[in-house]
Design a protein that fits this description.
about 350 residues; 11 helices; single chain; alpha/beta; 6-stranded mixed sheet
Length: about 350
């Protein structure tokens, strides 16, 4: 089930798949939005949108932030209404169904500024619209810049009861909802058609078991920027599965192609992570483990999985690692006979 989260902070601190910016039906924007457009060289919205319309564009140069940028016409003549804001939420939910690469959507409290709507009404309308038809794995993150507003909205939805004037149906825990499925990026080399099929089968297995596995063959669309896609996916991923073989090791060590680019990104990310981090996990498909590992991964604990994709033991081991399920026997008492 799609989820909605309230978060304190700037949307551009990232990462997300889609960042939504407010505008008016005539294409005007606030000074805050204008600063972001200038800084990130984002095209300005055009006039002619209807109240509640949403337009999605590629976010060129948005590495580690988002792959797409959106404009939502949340205001017309300095006013708006909850119906229009709910319509925006519905369109954002529809986008997650239409585009498999968009799962995490970041948006501000659209209509709460120039539109004059109460923040609680805006949050409720966006959440209600989003959950109508959003993908089950999708998440809408509503960003609030002011701490007092954030705390007020959080308290409102946490403590809401039937006696309060709640404009729609989302209240308390229903607004918070459960966390989305773990997002896992699969890094690999297009060594051969058989290898690609093996990796695709691995990704399908992970998705069948509740993990939002992300592969370029599914989520990289025509016209998208490849380096930006890889940077965004690596940043958004809770875990990364590196499927390595001789060809992957060769490209990683030589910094060649997409694997070489990913290697630089991964090494930079690993450098800032704590030494006991389990974000990156390695599956080796080569018959000899050492031959299938690039230099920077030779000290990692790996799963040796050269052949059958349906290997039950390896499947269970990989799922336990990705879900962080560590089975440690309970510590007993010291024997009395000692």
């Amino acid at each position: 089930m799609a989820s909605v989260e309230l978060k304190l902070g700037d949307m551009f601190d990232g990462p997300s798949d889609l960042i939504v910016l407010p505008c008016s039906t005539s294409g005007t924007i606030t000074s805050f939005v204008r600063e972001r457009l200038i800084h990130y060289r984002i095209p300005y919205p055009t006039s002619g949108m209807k109240l509640g319309d949403v337009v999605i564009l590629p976010f060129d140069g948005g590495e580690n932030i988002a792959q797409f940028i959106g404009f939502a016409a949340s205001v017309a003549s300095n006013s708006t209404n909850a119906t229009a804001i709910e319509r925006i939420g519905t369109q954002l939910g529809n986008v997650t169904q239409e585009q498999s690469t968009i799962r995490r959507v970041a948006a501000p409290l659209l209509g709460a500024g120039a539109g004059g709507l109460r923040s609680e009404v805006v949050a409720n309308a966006l959440a209600k619209g989003f959950k109508k038809n959003a993908h089950n794995d999708a998440q809408l993150v509503l960003h609030v810049l002011q701490r007092d507003v954030f705390e007020r909205i959080s308290s409102f939805f946490t403590e809401a009861t039937e006696t309060k004037e709640v404009p729609a149906t989302l209240k308390g825990e229903e607004f918070k909802n459960s966390a989305p499925p773990p997002r896992v990026f699969v890094s690999y080399c297009h060594t051969s058609p058989d290898h690609e099929k093996w990796v695709e089968s691995l990704g399908a297995f992970l998705r069948e078991n509740g993990i939002d596995a992300r592969l370029d063959i599914w989520h990289l669309r025509r016209g998208m920027d490849l380096p930006q896609f890889m940077a965004n996916e690596l940043t958004l991923a809770e875990k990364v599965v590196i499927v390595s073989d001789e060809r992957y090791a060769e490209k990683a060590d030589g910094r060649v192609g997409g694997v070489g680019w990913e290697t630089m990104l991964i090494q930079g990310d690993v450098a800032r992570l704590p030494t006991n981090s389990t974000k990156y996990f390695v599956v080796v498909r080569s018959q000899k483990i050492d031959a299938g590992l690039p230099q920077y991964l030779k000290t990692k604990f790996v799963i040796h999985w050269p052949n059958n994709i349906e290997n039950i033991d390896n499947r269970k081991l990989l799922l336990r690692e990705l879900y962080d399920v560590i089975q440690i026997p309970e510590l007993g008492k010291r024997p009395l006979y000692l």
